[in-house]
Design goal:
Ubiquitin-like (UB roll); 10% helix; two-stranded antiparallel ribbon; mainly beta
């Protein structure tokens, strides 16, 4: 079992999974703008190959309006 920070919440997962698998599990696949893994932007083209491991921090960043 691994523990990660997901959107400032500590969660446990059975094993390491890819970014895409996490987004599917958390129902975030359609409603997100960007994924930040350990303070680094992850391009959508890398979601299926980027693995989340114990202690990682994952943030979903939504678009904001402003000026």
């Amino acid at each position: 079992m691994i523990t990660i920070h997901f959107n400032s919440e500590l969660i446990s997962l059975e094993k390491s999974i890819t970014v895409k698998e996490l987004l599917i599990e958390k129902n975030k696949l359609e409603n997100f703008f960007a994924v930040i893994l350990n303070k680094k932007f992850i391009p959508q083209s890398h979601y299926t190959t980027t693995v989340i491991t114990d202690g990682d921090t994952v943030e979903i960043v939504l678009p904001m309006q402003g000026g």
